[in-house]
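Tutorial, part two.
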Amino acid sequence: MSLNDVLSDLGKYLEFEIEEGRNTAAVSKQSLAALGRRRSARPVPPPGPMTPTAEDALAGVAEEVARCTKCSLHETRTKPVPGQGSARPEIMFIGEAPGYDEDRQGLPFVGRAGELLTKMIDAMGFTREEVFIGNILKCRPPNNRVPLPDEMDTCLPYLKRQIAALCPKVIITLGATAAKGLLDTTTGITKLRGQWRRFEGIDVMPTYHPAYLLRTPSAKREAWEDLKAVLEHLGRPIPERSQKGNR
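Running the prediction step on this input gives:
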């Protein structure tokens, strides 16, 4: 018999004795009321598990990427490059794969193409710390070759988990490989760029890779039009310092 059952029986007995005029126990009605409250009290359940934050989810992906041996790229990489930036971004940039500089530092877009991407982000009125930057692959392919289909298929679940944790308002894919890997399309980037697409409920704007823009400066104007379309989609004004076009 539980304590609550004992208290319940005792309370009923004492109440009966009082009603029969046999007040042989020094128990007041207030005490009986207290016993009732004690009887009806329920234990407070322990708090449930806390919902993982975006920071927790991103850290979990980074730890798994650091231990990943699912494809041969882990054998030749120097450092994995899980991604970098805000855990609550409006915009997520997705490139192809780490290059030489990224492989050495473990950070995305830190070479010449990274410098141009930083300028593009700044022209939009953001900083690198306010967006999130990642890649289809988390490890550098040897000699910066194009990622193989099986490598992208193996690595894509990491990126999907990051996207689910970040919940960006817009994804900007940089270059043909990023668009192909994320959107599963064979359309060339020259036809695909500037055209809104969707990935798991999130709007996607494909545009040129900064490395291509370094080789083909005349394409910068088209890339800037794509970035302006993203700003318009987000309801953000074009920064005054960028009104004359992409720097």
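The first strand starts at residue 84 and ends at 85. In part three we will examine how such features are distributed along the chain.
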